[in-house]
Structure prediction request, 471 residues.
Amino acid sequence: MSLDGLLYEIEDFRSEMEDYVDEMDSQGLSLQTPDDVKKYVDDYGVTSIRIWFTDILGFLKSFSISRAELAGAFEEGMGFDGSSIEGYRRIQESDMVAMPIASTAEVLPFRPGGSRSLRMFAEIRNPDGSLYGSDPRVILANNLERLEKRGFSHMNIGPEAEFFYFKDETGPNPLDRAGYFDINPVDVGDDIREVTVFALEAMGIPVEYHHSEVGPSQHEIDIRYQEALRMADSLQTYKYLVKEVARRCGVFATFMPKPIETENGTGMHVHLSIFKDATTNAFYDKSDPHHLSVTAKHFIAGVLNHAREMALVTNQWHNSYKRLVPGYEAPVYIAWAEANRSAAVRIPQYKPGKEVATRMELRFPDATCNPYLAFSVMLSAGLDGLEKKAECPEPMTMDLYKLTTIEREEMNIEALPHDLFEAVHVTDRSEFMKKALGEDVHRKLVETKLVEADKFRLHVSAMDLEEHLVL
Prediction:
């Protein structure tokens, strides 16, 4: 399909959805319950219902059911083989059940053959009906319950997930050489990005803004902050739509952290704050010079204390650590600051002193992480800082990249793991990560990533041959 054709299709779909939303609002309805979903499916001729869930590495999994199976799926769930999903059950205990969550129902903005498809996220359960504790979505929900038990209402998350458009999947061949905030005709990807925004908004995911990034054919679409569990669902949908819209436009989109050796990598800066209730930001203190409360400082201290352990989840691939090197705008050193982008944690100053805008920005994650697990370890680290009343160090105002190793050691500034192998071993020894993820997921993640690390350690690259063959 041409770009113009896809744009027309999605604009037309969005117009239909806006009319439907207006109709629901006028009737006081929304897709929240199984009955709401079943009525919508019947009234609007939905022919395919897609059930989504996520494996331990963050890959989206999907299967489709017909309209006839929908009522049974809500009542009893849909069985599947858990041993075939990365990080799920062993083969001798493989039966699992996916229970669709009605409140996550959204219509996909693509209509193959003119038909409508609806998707819902699923909650994974054991055959006896109990929650499966190693389901990443369940893990995040459990950690959010810990937050509520401490008297907070919710955690807001706002990710900035960057990506590249390439000509195809054969290699890093950019569509253009546009730079930061460039526009057409330099930024060829602008139209594709625009269509992706239409698709996101059609699925109920609000977008704050979007733009070209520093690298050639590098882009960013920022989703408006949401409650953490909803944001994890939205981020999975976002990654799907970025790739699917690109495919339909005849190009290739990737979230690979470092696809081009000489250019900036793609990260996912995560903005985070916790609230006491719907309007009271627990991170805000009007009287503090940085407008940060004691709660915020303990939380930040916890994140800094556990940054090295968290890295295996927030930066889970061998390639992730090729981005985390000095000189390419990626944070490497574990410190916090206000405007300083060389620190791992930053306090944005776009709206200084405004309560709702007071937040921390965690700068080292990348978008290839599993968002449910990543948000879980971020929250768990902050909660650990609160429980222990961890002391927050002084903010760093200097460029950390320009400090020598000795200077950083004297200032007690640690670095993130150097590579995946180090990250695996740091996490393997971490009791904190066992608590945050659960011992089962912790063990499976360490085992899986150790295999990956060893695979790359054994690989002989073209650079190895070029540098060492003459020895």
In short: The chain has 15 helices and 15 strands. Residues 377 and 436 are 6 Å apart (CA to CA).
